[in-house]
Write a structure and sequence with these properties.
- It is a single chain.
- By secondary structure, the protein is mainly α.
- The protein has one domain.
- It is 75% helix and 0% strand.
- It has eight helices and no strands.
- The radius of gyration is 18 Å and the shape is globular.
């Protein structure tokens, strides 16, 4: 099975294969520790932007724009230059934390408690998917990968189409707060969660193939991308459900 058949752009096979490790090799433990660093970096940045938005709600748009664009630029740089991941992973997490903290603060003012619930659900899903992966209940088979990758690409296409139609004054029911929007959001959350299984498998195989040490940062970066996506979708799902109450 290919270690890089992942729908996550930061988990490509070519990044892990045919790379000779110099002195130290990638390990699962090292990747876990670096993932924790990225998670806490995002939480720290989110706390900072959260306070800024509470003090000045008008700053939300600026923080989301700056954090979002910075995160995207760092993601693209890392996608093309994995060896730079030790230097881009933490800044990426900080940038995403700024954006997510600002969005969460505003939504939490509208729907009290929604941010904490989204965080708890996100980490609960992470632990559940890890348990399912470790026990072999869900395995990253070729068929599993194919289905998840196809669904992820479809979601990405729908998002881009929705973005383009938005500027033409056309809305898509998939991203509305109605029934179709709710069902689609649940579907996206499920696909995002299933991407974690592929990420876990890629990390294991990357360690087994003795990839260089910097790939720990690259793999944890890729996992962080999935977690950010999952959190955003869970936050959106909770906001839709809150509107319906």
């Amino acid at each position: 099975m290919s270690i890089g058949s992942s729908s996550n752009p930061f988990m490509k096979e070519s990044y892990f294969e045919n790379i000779s490790a110099d002195n130290q090799s990638m390990t699962v433990e090292g990747t876990i520790s670096k993932t924790l660093i990225l998670i806490f970096s995002a939480i720290f940045a989110a706390s900072f932007s959260w306070k800024l938005v509470l003090d000045n709600p008008a700053s939300m748009n600026s923080l989301v724009t700056i954090g979002g664009i910075s995160g995207l630029c760092l993601a693209l740089i890392t996608a093309f230059r994995p060896n730079l991941s030790p230097y881009t992973a933490v800044p990426y997490s900080l940038a995403e934390g700024v954006a997510l903290g600002a969005i969460s603060a505003i939504l939490n003012r509208i729907y009290p408690g929604i941010a904490l619930n989204a965080v708890l659900i996100t980490f609960s899903v992470l632990l559940i998917m890890l348990a399912l992966f470790r026990t072999g209940v869900i395995q990253a088979t070729e068929r599993f990968r194919s289905v998840v990758i196809t669904a992820t690409v479809g979601i990405a296409f729908a998002s881009l189409l929705s973005f383009a139609l938005y500027f033409m004054g056309i809305g898509m029911h998939l991203y509305s707060t109605g029934t179709y929007g709710l069902l689609f959001c649940v579907f996206v959350c499920i696909i995002a969660a299933l991407n974690l299984i592929i990420d876990f498998d890629v990390i294991i195989r990357g360690a087994e193939s003795n990839s260089p040490k910097y790939m720990e940062w690259f793999a944890s970066f890729g996992l962080m991308v999935t977690l950010v996506w999952l959190y955003i979708e869970i936050l959106r799902l909770l906001s839709i459900l809150s509107r319906k109450k």
